[in-house]
Amino acid sequence: MRNLRTISIDTRGNTAWIQTGATLGEVYYTIAATSRTLAFPAGVCPTVGVGGHFSGGGYGMISRKHGIAVDNIIDAVIINADGEILNRDSMGEDLFWAIRGGGGTSFGIVVAFKVNLVTIPETVTVFNVSRTLEQNATQIVHKWQYISDKIDENLLLRLFIISVRSPAASNGNRTIQASFTSLYLGRVEDLLPIMEQKFPELGLVEQDCIEMSWIESTLFFSYSYTATFVSKSPRAAYFNYRDLDIGRNNIEGNTKYRQASVWGFKYFEINFNRLVRVKTKVDPSNFFRNEQSVPPLSSN
Ligand SMILES: Cc1cc2nc3c(=O)[nH]c(=O)nc-3n(C[C@H](O)[C@H](O)[C@H](O)COP(=O)(O)OP(=O)(O)OC[C@H]3O[C@@H](n4cnc5c(N)ncnc54)[C@H](O)[C@@H]3O)c2cc1C
């Protein structure tokens, strides 16, 4: 898809057509070159491709306020298994639903997405504050679990937990460090009272914070990207963090619904059944298939 990477922005309608071979970095750069107050809510890493990322979800640092990439897709152009080029009207709402979260991979080749751009302040604030066990990390993480989804929606408090060499130990002992990598859609003077009221345990001070533009913040966060998290009991997964250990299709030939639903329900829960119905309708011969593509019922 690398030759299909054109990004056309309509600043009057606050929309953009984005071809799927573009990277997130190209999307963010093109938007920022057009306007300081427009943005798009998607992932933190600039090298990620639009095709897989948008069709599988796409969350990032402004997603608490503005949703994820699929929430902001309003049209698409797709090539189906018969080679037809369809837009939202001609593909119908079922297929349009499926490629906004179900992944493009099972249903066709998405050539471009039309998206709504969102409005953000010219200045945002970032901080990356770390606390070890010796610095009260256990209590801070405990509190974070209760406030991170309720605090002001302009603030996303992202948490990474890693093992580090203890700063207090001379003998090489290790400790656990919690890092709060965060973005506030606004200025530091507005952020500090929120933190003081809702999350004083972190002890955030002005010196921890840096004001910058949104495009600068995308670079700040891509440097600090570290890892994903795996859920347990039951083990589930986010479709864009593909996990082949939760089950896969046959290497050759078709795969039965029952076998595919082992991994399918872990990504999509009950929506897996609707994705199977869409697949059966738009690609009954299972032309678009891979180790975790949605199977059509006709292949059973
Ligand atoms: C470094 C890194 C950072 C990441 N950060 C985030 C993050 O912050 N937030 C987040 O939500 N996710 C994140 N991800 C996960 C990312 O969203 C997924 O890896 C996503 O699938 C990448 O899409 P791609 O097009 O680059 O990859 P690809 O491997 O090219 O594609 C992934 C899947 O989508 C299909 N696909 C790709 N393009 C199309 C198309 N045009 N039409 C139909 N199907 C297509 C492919 O067949 C494949 O099955 C990150 C991944 C990496 C590697």
Automatic annotation (TrEMBL):
<keyword id="KW-0285">Flavoprotein</keyword>
<dbReference type="InterPro" id="IPR016169">
    <property type="entry name" value="FAD-bd_PCMH_sub2"/>
</dbReference>
<keyword id="KW-0274">FAD</keyword>
<dbReference type="InterPro" id="IPR036318">
    <property type="entry name" value="FAD-bd_PCMH-like_sf"/>
</dbReference>
<keyword id="KW-0732">Signal</keyword>
<protein>
    <recommendedName>
        <fullName>FAD-binding PCMH-type domain-containing protein</fullName>
    </recommendedName>
</protein>
<comment type="similarity">
    <text>Belongs to the oxygen-dependent FAD-linked oxidoreductase family.</text>
</comment>
<dbReference type="Pfam" id="PF08031">
    <property type="entry name" value="BBE"/>
</dbReference>
<dbReference type="InterPro" id="IPR012951">
    <property type="entry name" value="BBE"/>
</dbReference>
<dbReference type="Pfam" id="PF01565">
    <property type="entry name" value="FAD_binding_4"/>
</dbReference>
<dbReference type="InterPro" id="IPR006094">
    <property type="entry name" value="Oxid_FAD_bind_N"/>
</dbReference>
<comment type="pathway">
    <text>Alkaloid biosynthesis.</text>
</comment>
<feature type="domain" description="FAD-binding PCMH-type">
    <location>
        <begin position="1"/>
        <end position="120"/>
    </location>
</feature>
<keyword id="KW-0017">Alkaloid metabolism</keyword>
<dbReference type="InterPro" id="IPR016166">
    <property type="entry name" value="FAD-bd_PCMH"/>
</dbReference>
<keyword id="KW-0325">Glycoprotein</keyword>
